[in-house]
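We include the entry.

. . .
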Amino acid sequence: MNSDSVPSTSLAMRAACALLLSAGIATAQGSVGPHALGSLQECVGLGLTKLGVLDAEQINFVQLPSDPPGTYYVSLTVYGLSTARGGAGSDDLLTGRYDILTDTFTENLDAAGLNTAGTEFMLGMHSSGLFAVFDRPGLSLQFASRGSVTSPFVDRGSITGVPFQSWYDPNLATVDGKLHLVCRINNDLAMMPLDTTTLVAGTPTVIARSTGSGQLNSSAPILDANGEMIGISYHDLIGNDNDHWVSFDLDPATPGHVVLDNATFYSNGSFFGGRYFAALSDSSGYRITQRDYMWCAGGVGPVGGSMDIAAYVPADLAASSISFLMISASYANPVTIPGFTGSFGLGVAGWNIFGMGPHAKGTARASLSLAIPQDASLKGIVVPAQALTIETKASQFVFGNTCSLRVK
């Protein structure tokens, strides 16, 4: 069975709704983070030698509808890019396609026209591949677009309506059907509607809040199957320590999950299924690294509509992995269970489990589509959830992160 086409079912949602109608919930994410597999590794296919540059300082991906599963459209910020390859100054933008199954990068010149003698940084692309934003640090926040995914990006000008900052670490995402700019505003991450004609950003809404002396950065939207942003991956900078965090909703009151507590500067990355790529700066240079995870973003859906929930594993484990969705009436303090890897973070009351199916080879994704009843009383409910993955090659039963199912 193709896990990307699991039939819609209302059974799981009816069970989930019954839980919330009788129990209610106070927190929206639980306390178990994505399950890490192995250690941080340098990505050979996106290494400095393969890229032919001196530094690689940022990476961002989108899965274009026209590309085959396992192939992602990539943007990088690099230093030392030759003029023949689109380089123009200090830090430049480089784009291409990356095949995660073969670890192969094929560059193009789609961003060459955005590069200047100064510095360009972090080309954050919309999932359509048609719009992008990027920093000119200390100068401006720029918007770019193109008519098709086979055309080069064109710089359309500076975005206004945002407070002036030396850098933004910008990205783009769809929220409630509208294009939004996602970026750093002061020490927090915020989203704001963006008019692509006037290039004016609307009022910021904070989606992840700094909890101490840190400065949030490196926004990477987490999307559902419809391309809607339902969560955010980001980093938290304190001094030169820039740890990786993730939040599976857009509520700044929800504490994020720490994904990687790193002692060095680690930032500006994105998920490819169950693999997270980011730039690491240490004594060995500034380069692209990767680490594998098993994780689930939960889901969001409207009353009378549907909710898509996806679980992810690393691409090389997709063929041997099957995932399940667990729900409960509450979160609980994490516990370990003999025979299982990771921590179980749901309460026993109301516990239930539903199959998500095998993971697709290219996307490393297993999914479940839930039909939400046409019942206005369900609006606003939050159902605690957690994924369980069986990896048959190593006979592992792995608990992923806790998350939530939310009706809007």
